[in-house]
Amino acid sequence: MPELPEVETVRRGLAPVIEGRTFARVVQRRTTLRVPMPENFVARMTGRRVISIGRRAKYLLWTLDNGEVMVVHLGMSGRMSILSPPDKDGNGRHDHVVFHMDDGVRVVFTDPRRFGLITLVAENDLEDHRLFCHLGPEPLGNAFDGGVLSSVLRGRKSPIKTTLLDQKVVVGLGNIYVCEALFRAGISPRRSAATVAGKRADRLVPHIRDVLTEAIEAGGSSLRDYAGADGELGYFQNAHAVYGREGEPCPGCACGGGVQRIVQSGRSTFFCAARQR
DNA sequence: ACGAGAACCTGTTTGC
DNA sequence: TGCAAACAGGTTCTCG
Question: How deeply is A180 buried, as exposed, middle or buried, from its count of CB atoms within 10 A (0-12, 13-18, 19+)?
Fold first, then answer.
């Protein structure tokens, strides 16, 4: 479910409410998500204060006052939501962890498919941790530009669509925003990655930045179960030019063929064959 | 070393 | 109506 804009939206919803608060009680209902939960998770969390909530790639990073970081990934169907008093109880079938803060605020981690994960990592070991050591640059950071992208794309024979989904190339993009960025850049998802290196990469980078930035401003894309931490739905799905729009006319293009859906590496790709070359 | 495909899960939609 | 297949925002492992 969540790509960078959705995770960032969750982070922005959580941070002002949670930063500075202490875990008064933690209720853990599952020992395993995508990977096993940390040993003694409840004991290690209880009494800790949250210094800050950050993000790297699609991971939420809760920095704690003991030098550890709670790492959260939402997988395909995960949510982290703040329950306000009259709200639901956090006892749903897929509510795996409930965090009770010292001011009465409750945060629930819900994930029907359990592709998400929660783990604890020492802050100093974060960069070298197996989850992080292979990650590419942040697409909205200074370390990402056409030259950097080109250097990774050169020598890659696979289609640009699947290459951009590889978090070693650049982080944060998922199926929606790859399709949207390639559409905006007029680049065919089937084109081999190596042929995008150079001028096409220079053209693509600003579109990646723009589509992610616009999506964050819109609170992300709410298709099925995604919502921000406050339960608000994003509305960027209304701005999707191609994703999920098979058969619809391609916006701003009189090609007549409309948006096509193909499958690449087992996942749907949406694009306009006339505009994207 | 690289890339395609499978696997991990549950829920919802689609098609016969 | 009913059941089976297809599909879903991600990551990681295996195999060729």
Answer: buried
pTM here? 0.97
Same domain, A110 and A188: no
- Digit-coded pLDDT (tens) for A175-184: 999 999 999 9
Q: How far apart are CA A236 and CA A244, in angstroms?
A: 13
CATH number at residue A250: 1.10.8.50
Measuring from the CA of residue A1 to each C1' atom, give the nucleotide at the shortest distance: C9
Distance A216 CA to C12 C1' (A): 27
Interatomic separation, CA of residue A22 and C1' of nucleotide C9, rounded (Å):
31
Angstrom distance, A154 CA to B13 C1':
40
DSSP codes joined into one string, A28-84: E--SBSSSBPPTTHHHHHTT-BEEEEEEETTEEEEEETTSEEEEEE-TTT-EEEEEP
Asked if the Cβ of residue A262 lies within 7 A of any atom of strand C, the reply is no
What domain range is A199 assigned to? 146-271
CATH number at residue A19: 3.20.190.10
A8-30 average pLDDT score = 97
Tell which strand C nucleotides have any atom below 7 Å from a protein Cβ. Answer: 7-12
Q: Is the CB of A72 under 7 A from strand C?
A: no
How many folded domains does chain A comprise? Answer: 2
Is residue A183 helix, strand or coil? helix
Residues A98 and A157 in one domain: no
Residues A150 and A267 in one domain: yes
Q: How far is the CA of A130 from the C1' of B10 (A)?
A: 27
Interval A42-54: pLDDT, tens: 999 999 999 999 9
Nucleotide with minimal C1' distance from the CA of A155 is B2
